[in-house]
Design a protein that fits this description.
globular, seven-stranded mixed sheet, 6 helices, alpha/beta, 192 residues, Rossmann fold
Length: 192
């Protein structure tokens, strides 16, 4: 993690504190855990709130081709930096809550996974619902998963929302050496 990345994140936080969940980029151990279960052979990947691109780099290091990656970033400055840093990825400067009204980001194909760095615990509940519903209703394959980290102890997607959308959550691990320590959750459609 570079000083420039930390400063970019700090400036983004100053512009809009609710859209940035931490004042420093996620560490490499969290990036590895967030991306460990993504198998790019099953389809493209969407990253929500990529910030400085820590998870993006981990996905590319795991072999995901850059053109099979869409980055959704609400901060214009961070989106521009991501487009420069990852020229093969498609960077969209948009609010993730708009995913439900967008057509599939990959044309006729849907994503096999969504990696989310969004600070769901600081986002208003109606917006969280729009994000999660948009991901599962419009963007994700039937057997796809959303990977979300949180600094809290519980799944950041509320139980009532999961039940309403027919989703289940599974904690897949924690990273105690991250600053602050983080938990990673996999959210997917309930299996019958």
């Amino acid at each position: 993690m570079s000083l420039n990345d930390t400063m970019d994140l700090l400036r983004a936080w100053l512009r809009d504190p609710r859209s940035v969940g931490a004042l420093a980029p996620s560490g490499p151990a969290l990036a590895r855990l967030m991306t460990a279960h993504v198998d790019q052979a099953h389809g493209p990947v969407i990253e929500l709130g990529p910030g400085t691109g820590v998870f993006t780099r981990a996905l590319l290091d795991r072999g995901l081709p850059g053109h099979r990656l869409v980055l959704v970033e609400t901060d214009q400055v961070l989106a521009s930096a991501l487009a420069h840093r990852y020229p093969l990825a498609r960077v969209l400067h948009m609010d993730a809550a708009e995913l439900g009204s967008a057509s599939s980001l990959f044309g006729n194909e849907r994503a096999c996974a969504v990696i989310s760095g969004l600070p769901l615990l600081s986002i208003p509940p109606d917006k969280v619902e729009a994000i999660i519903a948009g991901v599962f209703e419009r963007q994700l394959q039937q057997d796809g998963s959303l990977y979300q980290f949180t600094y809290g102890l519980r799944c950041p997607v509320p139980r009532a929302l999961r039940q309403r959308l027919g989703l289940e959550a599974e904690r897949i691990g924690g990273v105690w050496l991250n600053l602050p320590p983080a938990q990673v959750w996999r959210i997917r459609r309930r299996t019958r």
